[in-house]
Amino acid sequence: MAAALLSACQTTRERLLAEGYPAPFANGFEDGCSSGRNAAQALGEFRKNVPIYLADRQYATGWDDGFRQCQASVASDFQRRIGTDSKADRDWRHARDQDMGRALGRTSHD
Questions:
Q1: 83: which residues sit within 8 A by CB, 6+ positions away?
Q2: How far is it, in rounded angstroms, from Cα 85 to Cα 9?
Q3: Cα–Cα distance measured from residue 57 to residue 97, given in angstroms and rounded to the nearest whole number
Q4: Please, which of 6, 10, 26, 37 could form a disulfide with 16 given CB 3.0 to 4.6 Å?
């Protein structure tokens, strides 16, 4: 139980290092993830050490992986929150379509 609590307090970088990933990859992943979360929102800033990104393939791979994963995660969370295709939305569209059908049906018979 203590190990679970301790791991919950670890940063992503610390967790990756504990799992055996090289430090440059973990650093890149952390920067990329931060940038990915910001990219999925309206405003935000990117964290990328461009000279290291260009020179260190592990950092670049970590950054790319972190960016993609965290951007997708935030976008997915946002879609779930707004419930783009929730039951309430489907019910509303169905009722609207039925009302429109009834309204059009009345005008064509008048």
A1: 89
A2: 35
A3: 55
A4: 26
Please give the Cα distance from 108 to 5 (Å, whole number).
68
Which two structure tokens, joined as six digits, stand for 69?
């994963």
On whether the CB atoms of residues 56 and 62 are closer than 8 A, the answer is no
Continuous segment of H or E residues that includes residue 63: helix 57-82
Residue type for position 87: K
CA–CA distance, 71 with 77 (Å, rounded to integer)? 10
Whether this prediction's pTM lies above 0.70 is answered by no
Q: What is the pLDDT of residue 64?
A: 93
CA dist 28 and 52 (Å) reads 9
What are the pLDDT digits (tens) for 55-77?
999 999 999 999 888 888 887 77
CA distance 47 to 21: 20
